[in-house]
Hints:
This protein is globular. Strands 13, 14, 15, 16, 19, 20, 21 and 22 form an eight-stranded mixed beta sheet that branches. With 649 residues, the protein is of the alpha+beta class. The model is unreliable at 1-22 and 24-64 (pLDDT under 50). Helix 17 (576-587) packs antiparallel against helix 18 (591-608).
Amino acid sequence: MFKNLLKSSVTIALLVITVVLLSITIEMLDNTEHNLIKENKLLKSRLEKAELAAAGAQSTSRDSEIKGPNAKYALAFTDPQNLLSIDPVGWLPENANKGGMLKSYLGSDPKGLNFLTQNGSDVSALQGYIGIGLVARHQEDTSKYRPELAFHMARTDDFLTYTFRLRDDIFWHKPTLDETNPQYKWIFEGKTCKEGHFINERCRVTAHDIVYMMDMTMNNQVAGAAPLRSYFANLKEYKALDDFTFRISFSKKTQTQDRMVRGLFPMPEFLYAYDEDGEQYDESIAGTKFEAHWYDPNTIGAGPYRFVSFDPSVKIELERDPRYPLGGNAYSKILFQIVNEDLQRVRKFKNEELHYTSLSPSQYRTEVLEAGEDSPFNNGTFGAGEFWSHTYFYIGWNNQSPLFSDKRVRNAMSHAFNADLLIKDVMMGLGQRCTGPMPAFLPQYDKTLPPIPFDLKKAESLLEQAGWIDNDGNGIREKVIEGTKTEFEFSLTIYGSSKEYKTIGDIYKEDLAKIGVKMNVQPQEWSNLLKKVDSKEFDAVTLAWVSSPDVDFRQIWHSSEADKPQSSNYISFRSEAGDKIIEELEEEFDVEKRHALAKQFHKLIYDEQPYTFFYTRQSKYYWNKELENVKAQLTRPYLNARAWYIKGE
């Protein structure tokens, strides 16, 4: 009996302890929820104060007096925890003329117009007019960030959690569909817009649209998002705390994440999450349907200009959104003409069919260097400027190919490439040699590494060391690979609309023939070239990489990206030592140490030569003097016409 009593006592004691622990846990959860509610109430209180401050006396931020569209949120910029500040350089001067049509151009048809799945420079340029990001860099001090959709960005001390407070006056553009078609009634009546956010026939942008963008980014069915997805390996969670507060958290602190969260932008869930009849896609196929959506090839945004139409190989039209509150939209319309030939573009510019143009090296020679003083490019008829882009040009070698899997062969290819001659005679001196995976003018670029010299003897020696020898005397080197005699013959895929790259290909072909290598030049239109790159159906390809002032190597060079569909590591480069440096770089926040690690990686790539690095470009551009306030940006897109305007009569 005593034993039974003892057992019962122990059982009761354990039950009491369990109940106590459960109560403590519930109380902790209640406290967490209470703190979150308290934080959001505090935010709303501060916003109310901000509105009162904006309506009363003038408020000031840490950087400048706050006027215009950010005045409503003036209080947010007095918060020392806010990582955003007002850019003292506005888009347009107060006396800027409003109206007119900007006559711009694109060099080719975009492969697609979905801003998440397409990352070509042409689509990025369009996104700068049509879309809106959470934040953006200052125009002159690119180390600082200004508000866009978000007016407040906070970061925890451990660099693991980021919280964005969003404006409540940004609206999605109307979709480019036939509003009289009954099939699309669900869109134009706002049936899929979040409750309470369909106002004056427009759907408001909310934190849920950032969540949807992240849903599609992290969905493996969305192959086009693979390059961006590679930066979120440490993602812990993301959510909308309310309609206008977005939070994202990571399990590990990295410097790369600190930059990447600033590049997030909304995607319209009310459109892309639904089929053509307004039925929401099942979660199991949502990514597949997003990748090839029925709304394509149209696009939609919430930025300064609304997408109107896309006539392939002819034009893309945009119109000003009068409800966009952040400025930088002086023109009533923007016309992007598809002009894929340099001669045609310059002719259109001279005939005032374009407001501005850049000059290819061959055109720069014809119109400037070899033209007389009467040339409109020399006599002051046109405005003129130049800029250095964060770009490097290269030949990428498919490292999976048995021809280029050996670094001795890749080094031989670089020694056979007469880069100095090509920059001087083909690129008209508009650039400087580049030896590694970043623009040559950045501080983390290792200037001690000499450019690979043009040396056919050295190239021959390296090929022989790798086992490529012309044994049968037919002028082409061969090697037995997996029991099969293989001649050294390959194709170089080039951008077909570039006269310069056709010339480069022909010169390179002749030099390689001198050392027993047969190269075929394979011109491709831009969209076809990108398809070949995405599917890795190439031996070698000429391309360029455009980066931000902050250098990151994971997307292009990490081994984990080598086998992912449509990843940026399309040459399938793998290096354990390189991976280690990339991972160390991602976790390092000290600038000097980051530069040292970047130089280590530069040296590793220099030795491996997975690319034959060519040059960093200097670009010349000219404009019709009908345009005012013309200047190039310090970051891409360099020729961003939002800061320009057309003279008034």
